């Protein structure tokens, strides 16, 4: 195996290991996926998103965690995902929950026997795919039509090759026109595109950042978004127990708008603001790790996406046969120029 084949095999192996590790929890049942149907937890998760729920030791859950549980009304195959606001232990753990978008807490208690697990990840908009697949027109365009074209193409090939004489003629033509193809990464162009896209999105994102850093919250606090993109804000109090006492401790502000946040007087906290171009859940989780990570993640994600969109510029297919034809053309062109000069003389 040459270096290129070794590299390709290594990439395939890494992807296979990643997919295997990602799918194992779903196969074993330790993780489950649910489609979000309502807006009670917006903007953290939106209708049409898919959430990943992990089976955990309920004793490890704390106030502020997001719990998925069976519908309290007893509807089969129906689940609710809300944030834990209080918990107490009686004969079993009892949770009090509330949707982030709801003004009041839930009017029921959630017992441990009804709990399914903790919500640990959000995949945006993927939940719409099953609904889209049920649309007859979309199903025809995306599945039936391409499959029909493939079948027609195969039938046509069978017809062409049904005659041995005709088949030999086609093969002779193919051998004459066969070219050895290989793909080449244009390293300089790729590096230039990464740098350009990185600079562009760094400028866009930094221009749309709001106030960031330590703050002392008053009873009423106004947060302004003067950028041209919607903005996510996150308050992280120095005392994590005060998080849910800030109304609302995170949210989305439309462009050229402002919102008011109510908090206990003189609450020390850190404020983070970033453009709303990644899911809110991702931003909150990255903020927990490091307040600068959301900005870095947005730059990297969008610079990478646009670099991939421009794939034809830095990743090209070359053919040896095609190169020979170009060389032959250049030779003919040079000969024609020499002849033309001779005639003019």
From TrEMBL:
> Where does the UniProt annotation locate this protein?
Membrane
Membrane as a keyword of this entry, yes or no, is: yes
- Looking at the UniProt entry, the stretches that span the membrane are 6-27, 138-160, 190-209, 292-315
Question: Which InterPro entries is this protein grouped with?
Answer: LexA/Signal_pep-like_sf, Peptidase_S26, Peptidase_S26B
One GO CC term, this protein: membrane
SUPFAM superfamilies in alphabetical order: LexA/Signal peptidase
Signal sequence, start to end: none
UniProt GO MF annotations: serine-type endopeptidase activity
Q: Which UniProt keywords apply?
A: Membrane, Transmembrane, Transmembrane helix
Q: Name one GO biological process term.
A: signal peptide processing
NCBIfam families, alphabetized: sigpep_I_arch
Protein name in UniProt: Signal peptidase I
Q: Which organism is it from?
A: Methanosarcina spelaei
């Amino acid at each position: 195996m040459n270096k290129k084949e070794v590299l390709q095999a290594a990439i395939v192996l890494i992807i296979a290991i990643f997919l295997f590790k990602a799918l194992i929890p779903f196969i074993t049942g330790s993780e489950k996926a649910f489609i979000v149907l309502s807006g009670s937890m917006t903007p953290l998760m939106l209708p049409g998103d898919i959430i990943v729920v992990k089976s955990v030791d309920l004793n490890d859950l704390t106030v502020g965690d997001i719990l998925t549980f069976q519908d309290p009304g007893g509807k089969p195959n129906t689940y609710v995902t809300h944030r834990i606001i209080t918990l107490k232990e009686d004969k079993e753990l009892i949770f009090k929950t509330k949707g982030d978008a709801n003004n009041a807490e839930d009017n029921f208690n959630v017992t441990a026997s009804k709990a399914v697990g903790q919500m640990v990840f959000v995949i945006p908009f993927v939940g719409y795919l099953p609904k889209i697949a049920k649309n007859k027109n979309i199903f025809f365009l995306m599945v039936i039509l391409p499959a029909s074209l493939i079948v027609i193409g195969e039938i046509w090939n069978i017809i062409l090759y049904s005659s041995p004489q005709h088949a030999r003629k086609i093969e002779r033509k193919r051998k004459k026109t066969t070219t050895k193809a290989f793909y080449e990464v244009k390293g300089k162009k790729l590096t230039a595109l990464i740098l350009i896209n990185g600079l562009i999105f760094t400028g866009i994102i930094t221009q749309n950042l709001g106030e960031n850093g330590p703050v002392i919250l008053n009873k009423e606090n106004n947060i302004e978004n003067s950028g041209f993109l919607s903005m996510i804000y996150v308050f992280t109090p120095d005392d994590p127990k005060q998080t849910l006492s800030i109304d609302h401790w995170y949210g989305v502000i439309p462009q050229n708008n402002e919102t008011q946040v109510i908090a206990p007087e003189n609450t020390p906290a850190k404020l983070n603001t970033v453009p709303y171009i990644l899911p809110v859940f991702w931003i909150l989780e990255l903020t927990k790790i490091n307040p600068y990570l959301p900005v870095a993640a947005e730059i990297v994600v969008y610079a990478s996406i646009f670099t991939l969109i421009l794939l034809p510029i830095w990743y090209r297919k070359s053919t040896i046969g095609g190169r020979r034809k170009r060389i032959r053309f250049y030779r003919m062109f040079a000969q024609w120029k020499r002849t033309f000069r001779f005639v003019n003389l």
